[in-house]
Amino acid sequence: MCAAEPKKGKVYLIGAGPGDPGLMTLRGKELLEQADCLVYDALVAPALFAWLKPGCERIFVGKRAGNHAMPQEEMNRLLVECASRYDCTVRLKGGDPYVFGRGGEEGMALREAGVPFEVVPGISSAIAGPAAAGIPVTHRGICTQFTVFTGHEGKGKTESQLDIRGIAAANGTKIMLMGMSSLRETMTALIEAGQAGSTPAAAVQWAATARQKYVCATVASLADAVDAAGLGAPAVVVIGEVVNLSPVLDWRSSLPLAGKRIVVTRTREQAGELSHRLAAMGADVMELPTIRIAPPSDKRDFAEAVVDSPHYDWLIFSSPNGVKKFFQAFFAVYEDIRELGGARLAAIGAGTAAELKKFGLMVDVMPKKAVAEELIAEFDRKADEFGGVAHCTMLWVHSEQSRRVIHDELMKRHAIVDECIAYSTVPETEDLSGSRKRLLEEGADIITFTSSGTVRHFMDLQIPLPESCRIVSIGPVTSATLAEYGLKPDMEAPLHTIPSLVETIIKLAAAK
Ligand code: SAH
Q1: Which CATH number fits domain 294-424: 3.40.50.10090, 3.40.50.1360, 3.10.450.50, 3.90.226.10?
Q2: Ligand 1 centroid to residue 101 C-alpha, Å
Q3: Are 119 and 98 a contacting pair, CB within 8 Å?
Q4: Are 337 and 359 contacting, i.e. CB atoms less than 8 angstroms apart?
Q5: Residue nearest to atom 2 of ligand 1 (CA)
Q6: pTM of the prediction?
Q7: Most confidently modeled of 159-173, 194-208, 494-508?
Q8: Among residues 178, 332, 364, 461, which one has the fewest Cβ atoms lying within 10 Å of its Cβ?
Q9: 261-290+428-510 and 294-424 share one CATH topology?
Q10: Who lines ligand 1 at CB under 6 A?
């Protein structure tokens, strides 16, 4: 290929859905993971950025306080230019790209420039927004059609293209997007055009996200209700008898952590489980990865320890990451799990045991509480069963930052302990999900710490803790580290596991 020839990449116009990352399509997620460049606007949930590969360029084209969004022609030019520089450009839009998203215009501009593109639909807030407040847009016996319209038209239009009469006269449910700034005027105009003022109406702000708020009123009283509740954009307005179903069908507001902003300080790789469980309980989760897993400083030592691992009586795993890194390296050298030999296995933490189980390996010794001291105690308790640890050869797989307890205590018991340092934890400097910014701007109700590392690294980031923010720790070691910084957790998980941590958070939230 001639070097001067411009690269012709492909542009994907993707709908991000109404806000909850779980409501994006699988195709959309797959493409986000491959994107070399992401062009996005304000309604796109920052949590989606966590799916991007490192080094993906991000271009924000939405409105920022005081600034207008990028003019459409400029936007179109930008996409064409991105296609000349990157193989895979994702243009991500809130909801569906073709529902008040100007996706059609961008598609036409790309076609004109000869740039290949693909459209990946998203769930429009027009449907998902009402649903998230317990309002189905159609319901048998109540209505047989729905109308979606915009409450805001492009600037500079002299004559209104909005068919208020037609909308007022239409049967069934009416859904308005972009209507908050002129809500009162639109409702008045609808009533003047014949819409009954007593028709039920609702406004749902930040629908399908944990920040969701909504009010139910009537067409005549909606603007006052919205003012009283302090609602604003982005919101979907729904008009029709279906609004009356909300008290019965709203499943979201009664979740135990509804409306709670909870900070998860874990590694980017590990945040998933805790975040998912909290989100399922209705929490507004801010993932704030403070640490990242990096290779150990001595990769050669690590590789040698893995090669020698079949010769030990015991393998001891301190963490799920240790298991993952160990077996990645193991299978780079050996093809068959049986090469590992007949070593007995010890693990700290149910998560660590679960990782081992993925390889069909069951743990022989695991303490109930996930701390090193308890593992030693468990070895002592089970000494009769195994004939004790004295003179046993043991390989301890752990991180560069682990405490020395396991090594020192087992040596005291005359075991021969070698170390396999499988990874290192380093501070996460990127704010990929935008959570750091949100925490600074909006505060949080609860912050969670799941290891001493997350405490230390969070402190390193020097983010001030919001005033009323409460602290939940996974266990005594993490709490002790918090104490070093003069902090005391409001609650500690009794079992030092993620499920136990979630239960503790629910208790704390309920305790008021
Ligand atoms: N393409 C988008 C709509 C873009 S227009 C879609 O299909 O949903 C922007 C408008 O969408 C906002 O003014 C608001 O009315 C609505 N909107 C988008 N996301 C929303 C959300 N999470 N909650 C409430 N309204 C939302």
Answers
A1: 3.40.50.10090
A2: 9
A3: yes
A4: yes
A5: 95
A6: 0.71
A7: 194-208
A8: 332
A9: yes
A10: 18-19, 43, 93-96, 99-101, 124-126, 129, 177-178, 204-209, 233-236
